[in-house]
Amino acid sequence: MTKPFSSVLITGASSGLGAGLARICAAPGVTLHLSGRDRNRLDAAAKQCEALGAAVHATPLDVTDSAATARWVTDSDAIRPLDLVIANAGISAGTGGGGETEAQTRAIFAVNVNGVFNTVMPAIPLLRQRRRGQVGIMSSLAGFRGFAGAPAYCASKAAIRVWGESLRAELAPAGIGVSVICPGFVETPMTAVNRFRMPFLMDVERASRIMVRGLARNRGRIAFPWPMHLMARLAGCLPSALMDRIAAGLPRK
């Protein structure tokens, strides 16, 4: 795959989709700015990317810390001007049949929504100055309809999906592309704890290639696999009474 980006920033890059995206972007001549909360896992992901020829700057970071995240984005841009910023860090909860607690609900919004804002907003002025660059926002197919067992997760992904779509139109005249990424089920630590069948489950490498290819093409929405995307869109359009009956028979996270 052609590596179209030379300086890439990725949050939540210590495992899962973040680490997969970093590996796909890694190549000689590419600089990666990676963050994650787990130092050991982040270092392991960085070493994989270095083995592929990339120059890697790994920084332990909690994206809910707005000041620290803004400094990291600015410092990364100073090392090498960013041409791709991926706000990937995200969490879920509810596993075990207990639903999402109040504390989990607040934590999910803090990471999945505020963490995205904290990453993208400091990057926008930097990209505006150069009138070029790409932003990737990690949403989910779960952001098209709320489901029992994961109301906060679904809502957080819906919020950043709509924000990203609006931001795309707002930043296009400045030469900045914005892509909202909506994956289905991917084999990651987040989905490994699910106790239900996950249709069209995809491995991380394939999912990451789809995402990087879509980002390189400045696609507004990168949603996959297409059967799940179709079902998610349909679920969002169904009358509530009908969806209530369908949702009653669905497994809960």
Automatic annotation (TrEMBL):
Alphabetical list of InterPro entries matching this protein: NAD(P)-bd_dom_sf, Sc_DH/Rdtase_CS, SDR_fam
Domain of life of the native organism: Bacteria
Residue ranges of the TM segments: none
Molecular function GO labels: oxidoreductase activity
GO CC annotations, alphabetized: membrane
Entry-linked Gene3D superfamilies: NAD(P)-binding Rossmann-like Domain
Keywords linked to the UniProt accession: Oxidoreductase
Family the entry assigns: Belongs to the short-chain dehydrogenases/reductases (SDR) family.
Record-given protein name: Dehydrogenase with different specificities
